[in-house]
């Protein structure tokens, strides 16, 4: 938006070398570069140049070639080093890589001196450069200082983490620090690990699970694109073995008993990974009187780190379901949404919830999802929150939608896929049929399976995702009209003609409205021509097949 061209310089062969393997590093680089950011890996930085106005360039060696990038702003992310100057001057024993060497009580070589956080070298071997380990160390030390007889000891910290880099969900998890420090996450040695990799190139999802060679224990893994199983997999990696599960079963999904509350989180699964708080701990706190998010933060520390477990995670539904079980009604819309209105608004803003149905399904109690009961309260709030153009008539929404689509296409440069979506939605048309929706055509049926899953429509689910926010903003406009308008706007934006359009198309109501592919003379191509024989219409050659398909739509040889 600022018109800036961004370079990312990484000295390692791939991005995030400490968290992910080369395969995920390459996937991440591809995603980042698709957003207009230029990534340089295996880079050696030799000099930063500056002038009277500040920084002007950076000299690098990349691929054996020396070059200078002209820049106006430089951001450096260089990690941390322990500030151990005082300890060194005092004669305390230091770790191999710096920091104050401490034991499992966080005690240094001097029994009167303790260290926690980045400066503490655990066993003289490593310093944790993260917030959570420091807090865990402080908790152990505090207990020891209050009671020297305690048996509590610091045994290391979990380095599992979830990230969202430029909109790309990414996570890595492990049962112990060895997963990262012994580089088990990128090992290919069958004597050390067994790797199970599941990849969906079309969706951009990648899952790598790392097991012991015998496949009996999950050591850790890396998730890219879809991190929904992160909590369950992390919990499983902490267990001594898989029990009755197998690597192959886990690679599909981790079975979980959520008690029927719809959270897909088990009682002992970690909900807040920043503070290692389980679902059971949160439920116990609620039953003990913690009936607001603030109460839960105070009692359990959940949500006091990054806050993701509340803003995007299962805490709201855990709270709603537990209050429902207790029979306690509180908040703006009990028992469905037992939260203060401000909390509901904040959650909707963070999760980009734009319909009452989405609000209830993501936040509401499982057994009390009464959409119509909460609609009078929630819908006005959503309208205000998202500045909805729900006022006015159909024509007014069509005019406003066209302007918004022009602005959107200008920013996103997604013209081709929107044109393809409209063509494929309308390609099912049969001029010989007169009844809706059997006649096919531009009726929005491409939203449903089996049509969207047909071979010719590969990737068009992404185009539908691009248009979903517009459908929410302009509820009076049908999906069929929205899809065709987006195509017409894309053609005009790309330098083509301004197409005179007529609107008022009806939407297909569900999958039953998707035309049978064979009735349209094609194999599995949603009414469009087959790419190769045998042809679904039975034609003996390609020209005859093309005529059969396009004549069915009302075209001729011209």
The computed structural class is alpha+beta
Write down how many β-strands occur, each being a DSSP E stretch of 2 or more residues.
15
How much of the polypeptide forms β-strand, as a percent range?
5-15%
Helix count equals: 18
Helix coverage percent: 25-40%
- The whole-angstrom Rg is 29 Å
Mean of residue pLDDT values: 89
Shape: globular
Description:
Helix content is 34%, strand content 14%. The chain has 558 residues and is of the alpha+beta class. It has a 5-stranded antiparallel beta sheet with strand order 9-10-13-12-11, with helices on both faces. The protein has a 3-stranded antiparallel beta sheet with strand order 3-4-5, with no helix packed on it. The protein has a 3-stranded mixed beta sheet with strand order 6-7-8, with no helix packed on it. α14 (394-412) packs across α17, α15 packs across α17 and α16 crosses α17. The longest helix has 19 residues, at 394-412.
Summarize the structure.
This protein has helices spanning 22-34, 85-89, 131-146, 178-181, 230-237, 247-252, 279-287, 293-300, 308-311, 315-326, 341-351, 356-363, 371-385, 394-412, 415-426, 460-473, 479-493, 542-553; strands at 6-9, 37-40, 43-51, 54-62, 65-70, 100-102, 120-122, 126-127, 161-165, 168-174, 194-200, 205-211, 218-224, 270-272, 277-278.
What would the keywords be for this entry?
alpha+beta, 558 residues, single chain, 18 helices, globular, 3-stranded antiparallel β-sheet
């Amino acid at each position: 938006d600022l018109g800036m061209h961004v370079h990312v310089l990484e000295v390692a062969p791939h991005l995030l070398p400490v968290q992910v393997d080369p395969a995920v590093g390459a996937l991440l680089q591809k995603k980042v570069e698709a957003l207009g950011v230029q990534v340089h890996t295996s880079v050696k930085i030799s000099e930063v140049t500056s002038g009277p106005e500040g920084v002007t360039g950076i000299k690098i060696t990349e691929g054996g070639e020396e070059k200078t990038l002209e820049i106006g702003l430089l951001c450096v992310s260089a990690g941390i080093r322990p500030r151990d100057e005082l300890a060194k001057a005092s004669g305390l024993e230091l770790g191999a890589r710096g920091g104050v060497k401490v034991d499992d009580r966080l005690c240094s070589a001097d029994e009167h001196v303790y260290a926690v956080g980045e400066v503490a070298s655990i066993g003289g071997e490593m310093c944790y450069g993260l917030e959570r380990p420091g807090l865990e160390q402080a908790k152990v030390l505090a207990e020891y200082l209050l009671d020297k007889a305690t048996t509590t000891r610091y045994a290391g910290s979990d380095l599992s983490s979830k990230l969202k880099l430029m909109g790309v969900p990414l996570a890595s998890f492990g049962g112990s620090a060895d997963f990262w420090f012994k580089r088990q996450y990128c090992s290919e040695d069958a004597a050390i690990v067994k790797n199970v990799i599941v990849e969906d190139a079309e969706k951009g999802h990648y899952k790598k699970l790392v097991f012991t060679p015998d496949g009996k224990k999950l050591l850790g893994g890396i998730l890219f694109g879809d991190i929904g199983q992160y909590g369950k997999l992390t919990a499983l990696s902490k267990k001594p073995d898989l029990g009755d599960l197998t690597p192959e079963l886990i690679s599909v999904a981790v079975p979980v008993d959520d008690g029927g509350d719809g959270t897909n989180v088990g009682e002992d699964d970690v909900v807040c990974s920043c503070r290692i708080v389980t679902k059971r701990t949160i439920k116990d706190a609620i039953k003990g009187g913690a009936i607001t998010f603030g109460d839960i933060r105070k009692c359990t520390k959940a949500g006091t780190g990054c806050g993701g477990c509340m803003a995007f995670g299962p805490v709201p539904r855990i709270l709603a379901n537990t209050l429902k079980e207790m029979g306690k009604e509180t908040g703006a819309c009990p028992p469905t949404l037992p939260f203060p209105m401000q909390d509901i608004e904040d959650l909707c803003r963070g999760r980009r919830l734009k319909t009452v149905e989405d609000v209830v399904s993501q936040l509401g109690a499982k057994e009390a999802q009464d959409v119509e009961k909460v609609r009078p309260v929630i819908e006005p709030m959503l309208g205000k929150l998202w500045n909805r153009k729900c006022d006015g008539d159909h024509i007014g929404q069509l005019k406003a939608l066209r302007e918004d689509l022009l602005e959107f296409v200008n920013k996103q440069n997604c013209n081709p896929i929107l044109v393809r979506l409209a063509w494929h939605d309308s390609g099912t048309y049969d001029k010989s049929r007169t009844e809706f929706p059997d006649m096919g055509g531009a009726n929005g049926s491409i939203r449903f399976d089996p049509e969207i899953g047909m071979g010719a429509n590969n990737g068009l689910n992404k185009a539908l995702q691009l248009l979903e926010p517009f459908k929410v903003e302009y509820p009076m406009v049908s999906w069929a009209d929205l899809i065709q308008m987006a195509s017409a706007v894309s053609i005009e934006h790309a330098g083509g003609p301004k197409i005179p359009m007529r609107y008022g198309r009806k939407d297909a109501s569900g999958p039953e409205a998707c035309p049978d592919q064979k009735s349209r003379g094609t194999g599995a191509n949603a009414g469009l021509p087959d790419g190769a024989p045998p042809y679904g219409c039975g034609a003996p050659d390609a020209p005859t097949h093309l005529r059969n398909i396009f004549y069915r739509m009302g075209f001729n040889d011209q």
